[in-house]
Amino acid sequence: GAVVSQHPSWVICKSGTSVKIECRSLDFQATTMFWYRQFPKQSLMLMATSNEGSKATYEQGVEKDKFLINHASLTLSTLTVTSAHPEDSSFYICSARRTGTSAHNEQFFGPGTRLTVL
Amino acid sequence: GEDVEQSLFLSVREGDSSVINCTYTDSSSTYLYWYKQEPGAGLQLLTYIFSNMDMKQDQRLTVLLNKKDKHLSLRIADTQTGDSAIYFCAGSSGNTGKLIFGQGTTLQVKP
User: Fold this and answer.
1) In sequence order, what E strands does chain A have?
2) Which residue of B31, B41, B104 is in closest CB contact with A104?
3) CB contacts, 8 Å: B101 with chain A
């Protein structure tokens, strides 16, 4: 159990277009999901915390109007990169925290989405 | 906030033990985690340790925690080529559930 999927697994788009990435918890409900981005050979940087039914909480330096997050159900959060530019090219990873999770706060990670903006 | 640091690279021979080190700054982190990332993939939770523990062992994995020095280590016994990956330590930040990751240690296992 505790599987998280992401779609698409990779996407190539032209500069100026918008791209939507989906994160789904397949066999559990997730009140909270997290979005990270990872540059090559670097660590994961938390972008935002997505809470079901409420606005996402963005980390300092992350533009909320550029990275739109919607968490409309307990199993789905979406990240939309608006007006994408080459510098937005990165590996985007989501994680989901199971509702009513145990104290150790385990997050289950998706396989990631590779975004390349031409 | 939490800051987590790791050494960037470790190379070992198959069958040897690997020790990956991590230091953190926030002593209020309740749990500390080790994740494994294979190329082009997401993160897999390997193990975690509660902050009031000194050691945790899970098959080939041993986690040591030195709270005084804010030092965490992961020992992999009998390292195999399939263990080659990037290993991240992470601490939790306050009560938000957010994880703060180290830079990752690339483990190279030579046959």
Assistant:
1) 4-7, 10-13, 19-25, 30-38, 44-51, 57-58, 67-73, 76-81, 90-98, 107-109, 113-117
2) B31
3) 43-44
